[in-house]
């Protein structure tokens, strides 16, 4: 059975969700004083318009009842600024596009293949392919690697553009395919490529931005530099490239490029390895090895904020998955380390996410979601941050709203087998009541060799039972019993992280009912 679009969802829901998020970001920022407010209601794809009755002072004035687009167009348009008009035109254009895509999707056959991502959208989506080292030297390779990572990091902090994770880009690195083919595989609108050439002391760095639909080059620049302080050159060039790309994409940034610290290659590499080691976090040995890697990165570079955020993350996940011998001490360590990361870099999104999990464990659900929202603001293009925001929303009783963030995480890093994104999509879909979506995601992760735990198996059992497939549910239950000596997946720490009692008990009750049915 083929995995659905973005592994489990339809194009219409994904694109409506993406537009909904863009509107929320717009009204939280430059559109906060616009008298016209445009919304895409949950579960619907036609925009509604609400007109504020007050002046442009940003005060909390009750909005008039929302009206549909057709009614507003027949009446008198309010006086709105240029940005409001542009937002309205964007909504009309995009909803028309969504309707067209929905019709196209309804008549197009689903290909008999495994996971694929959605087609490129009206919002820019870019993949940065690893810069090629054509120098054959250690210095050239180091510069190419560092440039690629810095560009991805900076682009992921821009609003209005989605950036595919480097882990997925690396899987296509050695394939001789053009921008159009990359766009098909990753669902992106643009591809950035670059290279480092020459011999010391002079190096030439080139970068080119391509539009995947046409294979057309839309931006390019060349930089000639004398090799001196490699990290400073890397920092300067990454900043220049990101600015050029942002102009080529016509994207809107959240507030300028942040000043980036110059981080050594070894510390960066350890951080990457540690993040890969964390999953699945129910394996305590993986968490401990990851923690050692984060600590070593800090020893190498005591100012590396990401390493502090990662170390904090390892502590809070030890508590979340029941590995901690001292919960209070580990939570305090997580909070202290996360704050240390933010003191060094206010855009360290993983630090906000870690603080959000601290609040979740303390059952401060509103604070948890708010902190996770901050992580999305500073680093909207990070797949981990999107996926964990989905998890936190589900824990707060907002599983239906969580699905689009889990799908977005998978879209941003579609090829990374070790990632938790498909399983998180399965998790939040289950609590949203979309059992087929949940089952497709869990099985899709398993087919491609992703993380698998007894908890994932328990959800597969429950999904089959909820869909009335009792024979298959019984077979999967036998597998669950063979790999799990107790019911920790149902009544362990994760089950108690939900705000609502019905969510806490949903999995356990579903499997208990199945056992009763089989027993009968």
Q: Any overview of this molecule?
A:
By secondary structure, the protein is α/β, with parallel strands linked by helices. It has 4 domains: 11-107, no CATH class; 125-249, Rossmann fold (3-Layer(aba) Sandwich), CATH 3.40.50; 263-380, Tetratricopeptide repeat domain (Serine Threonine Protein Phosphatase 5, Tetratricopeptide repeat), CATH 1.25.40; 402-520, Serine Threonine Protein Phosphatase 5, Tetratricopeptide repeat (Alpha Horseshoe), CATH 1.25.40.10. Helix content is 56%, strand content 9%. It has 21 helices and 9 strands. Strands 4, 5, 6, 7, 8 and 9 form a 6-stranded mixed β-sheet that branches.
Summarize the SSE layout with pairings.
Layout: H1 11-28, E1 36-39, E2 48-51, E3 67-68, H2 69-74, H3 82-107, E4 125-128, E5 132-133, H4 138-155, E6 162-163, H5 166-170, H6 179-186, E7 190-197, E8 202-211, E9 216-226, H7 230-249, H8 265-277, H9 284-300, H10 305-320, H11 327-344, H12 349-361, H13 365-378, H14 383-395, H15 399-412, H16 421-431, H17 435-447, H18 454-466, H19 470-483, H20 488-491, H21 501-519
Parallel strand pairs: 4-6, 4-7, 5-7
Antiparallel strand pairs: 1-2, 2-3, 7-8, 8-9
Helix pairs in contact: 1-3, 4-7, 8-9, 9-10, 10-11, 10-12, 11-12, 12-13, 12-14, 13-14, 14-15, 14-16, 15-16, 16-17, 17-18, 18-19, 18-21, 19-21
């Amino acid at each position: 059975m083929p995995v659905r679009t973005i592994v489990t969802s339809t194009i219409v829901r994904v694109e409506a969700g993406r537009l909904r998020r863009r509107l929320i970001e717009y009204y939280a920022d430059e559109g906060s004083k616009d008298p016209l407010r445009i919304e895409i209601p949950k579960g619907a794809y036609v925009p509604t318009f609400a007109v504020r009755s007050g002046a442009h002072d940003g005060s909390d004035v009750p909005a008039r009842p929302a009206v549909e687009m057709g009614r507003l167009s027949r009446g008198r348009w309010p006086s709105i600024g240029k940005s409001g008009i542009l937002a309205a035109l964007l909504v009309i254009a995009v909803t028309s596009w969504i309707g067209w895509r929905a019709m196209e999707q309804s008549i197009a056959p689903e290909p008999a293949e495994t996971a694929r991502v959605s087609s490129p959208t009206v919002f820019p989506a870019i993949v940065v392919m690893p810069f090629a080292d054509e120098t054959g030297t250690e210095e050239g390779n180091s510069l190419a690697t560092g440039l690629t990572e810095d560009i991805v990091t900076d682009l992921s902090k821009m609003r209005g553009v989605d950036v595919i994770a480097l882990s997925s880009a690396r899987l296509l690195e050695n394939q001789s395919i053009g921008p159009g083919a990359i766009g098909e595989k990753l669902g992106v609108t643009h591809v950035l490529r670059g290279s480092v050439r020459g011999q010391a002391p002079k190096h030439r760095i080139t970068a080119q931005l391509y539009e995947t639909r046409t294979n057309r080059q839309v931006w390019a620049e060349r930089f000639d530099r004398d090799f001196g302080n490699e990290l400073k050159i890397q920092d300067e060039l990454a900043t220049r490239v990101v600015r050029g790309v942002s102009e080529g994409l016509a994207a809107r940034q959240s507030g300028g490029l942040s000043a980036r610290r110059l981080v050594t290659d070894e510390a960066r590499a350890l951080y990457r390895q540690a993040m890969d080691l964390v999953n699945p976090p129910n394996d305590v040995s993986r968490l401990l090895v990851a923690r050692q890697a984060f600590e070593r990165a800090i020893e190498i570079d005591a100012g590396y904020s990401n390493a502090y955020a990662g170390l904090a993350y390892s502590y809070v996940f030890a508590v979340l998955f029941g590995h901690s011998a001292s919960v209070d001490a580990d939570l305090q360590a997580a909070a202290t380390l996360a704050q240390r990361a933010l003191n060094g870099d206010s855009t360290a999104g993983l630090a906000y996410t870690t603080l959000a999990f601290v609040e979740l464990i303390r059952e401060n659900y509103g604070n948890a979601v708010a902190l996770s929202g901050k992580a999305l603001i500073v680093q909207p293009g990070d797949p981990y941050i999107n996926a964990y925001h989905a998890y936190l929303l589900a824990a707060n009783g907002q599983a239906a709203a969580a699905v689009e963030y889990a799908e977005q995480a998978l879209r941003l890093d579609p090829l990374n087998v070790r990632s938790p994104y498909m399983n998180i999509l399965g998790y939040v879909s289950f609590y949203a009541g979309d059992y087929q979506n949940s089952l497709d995601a869990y099985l899709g992760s398993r087919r491609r060799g992703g993380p698998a735990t007894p908890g994932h198996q328990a959800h597969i059992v429950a999904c089959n039972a909820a869909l009335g497939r009792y024979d298959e549910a019984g077979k999967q239950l036998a597998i669950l019993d063979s790999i799990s000596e107790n019911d920790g997946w149902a009544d362990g720490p994760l089950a108690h992280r939900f705000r609502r009692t019905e969510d806490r008990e949903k999995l356990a009750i579903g499997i208990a009912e199945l056992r009763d049915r089989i027993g009968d």
